[in-house]
Write a structure and sequence with these properties.
The chain has one helix and ten strands. By secondary structure, the protein is mainly beta.
Length: 137
């Protein structure tokens, strides 16, 4: 399978794939979520990226996969005043989150995860097979 990259103003990242099973050993509580962030690649254009540079670039990742969602996550808006309306993100959704959001933890599986508040999630990627919504203006 061809490796897929995401290029942002913060760097280039390899999209992570999730098996559908949370192997991190980290379970989200209350309004927290656990995200597997996209990783900095080992090599770009034949140039090997040093481990320290990969770590710095990886901390700036703003995309990833939700692997665990707390029971109270996405129950209210970001100010905790109004009940959430619409689809709630679930494990397996590709999300966009704030730069440097949350705390980094190494899971039981040796992969890097971030535990963050639900309000750090800025958006979700729509599936490719979903029909486009027509706007009326």
């Amino acid at each position: 399978m061809e490796e897929r990259f995401i290029a942002t103003q913060f760097g280039s990242f390899s999209r992570v794939d999730w098996t559908g099973v949370n192997t991190s050993g980290i379970r989200a509580m209350c309004d927290k979520v656990v995200v597997m962030p996209d990783q900095a690649p080992d090599m770009i254009g034949g140039i090997v990226i040093p481990d320290e540079a990969k770590a710095n670039q990886g901390a700036a990742a703003t995309t990833g996969i939700l692997v665990s969602v707390g029971p109270q996550a996405f129950a209210y808006d970001s100010q905790r005043l109004v009940h959430w309306v619409g689809d709630r993100p679930v494990a397996g959704d590709r999300v966009y989150f704030m730069k440097y959001a949350g705390q980094e933890h190494t899971g039981r599986d040796g992969l890097l995860y971030r535990v963050m508040e639900d309000r750090s999630i800025a958006g979700m990627e729509e599936p490719l097979d979903q029909p486009e919504v027509k706007r009326t203006e």
